[in-house]
Amino acid sequence: MTALVEAVDLHAHYGESHVLRGISLAIGPGESLGLLGRNGMGKTTLIRTLLTHVRASRGRVLVRGRDCTRERPDRIARMGVAYVPEGRGIFPNLTVRENLAFAARAGVDGRRDWTQARVLDTFPRLSERLGHGGHQASPQIRHRKNRHIWADNFSDFAAHKIREVHFSVGGRRT
């Protein structure tokens, strides 16, 4: 089975600073991965490198088996891989309603599974804030069908939707 997203010996730099050193991982359909570590350990850099927002200095990034290491980030998004950046990444000068309208578009398969009604049903507190400033919403939970979502600091806006957390310790799920 082909991994949805795969890193092979991935390295990344910020100037002279070597941040990622030989990271290899594969995430298959239906799998989840949590990156844990202190600030400055490279969690965000790994996500941003996998999505080509940061250029890999060595190694490869594969999406469904296709080498995408040098693809533009918008091409990765069109392949169904969404990015929810830390800090929500919205337009604070727009209202919540305007942010949701701006983010609305068909998915990679042309379908519009995430209607505004479905977003508001999934995140009911947003309906109370439709006229508020954009800092109240995160449109990266888009009105489109993403095959894979990378959330950087997901707890910033979705903690109220997390019902249970599972950890894998030594290959045993708890």
Task: Explain the overall architecture.
About 25% of the residues are buried. The chain has helices spanning about 45-50, 75-80, 95-105, 115-120, 155-160; strands spanning about 5-15, 15-25, 55-65, 65, 80-85, 150, 170, 170-174. The chain contains 5 helices and 8 strands. Strand 7 and strand 8 (about 170-174) form a beta hairpin. Mean pLDDT is about 75; it is low at about 135-145 and about 155-174. By secondary structure, it is an alpha+beta fold. The strands form 3 sheets. It has a 4-stranded antiparallel β-sheet, covered by helices on one side. It folds into 2 domains: about 1-80, Rossmann fold (3-Layer(aba) Sandwich); about 80-174, no CATH class.
What overall geometry do the principal axes of the alpha carbons give?
globular
Low-confidence stretches: 136-146, 157-174
The largest sheet, given as strand count, sense and whether it forms a barrel, is: 4 strands, antiparallel
The radius of gyration computed from the alpha-carbon positions, rounded to a whole number of angstroms, is 17 Å
Q: Quick check: average pLDDT?
A: 76
Order of helices and strands: EEHEEHEHHEHEE
How many structural domains are formed by the residues? 2
Question: What percent of residues are in strands?
Answer: 15-25%
In order across it, which strands form the biggest sheet? 2-1-3-4
Discrete helix count: 5
Number of strands: 8
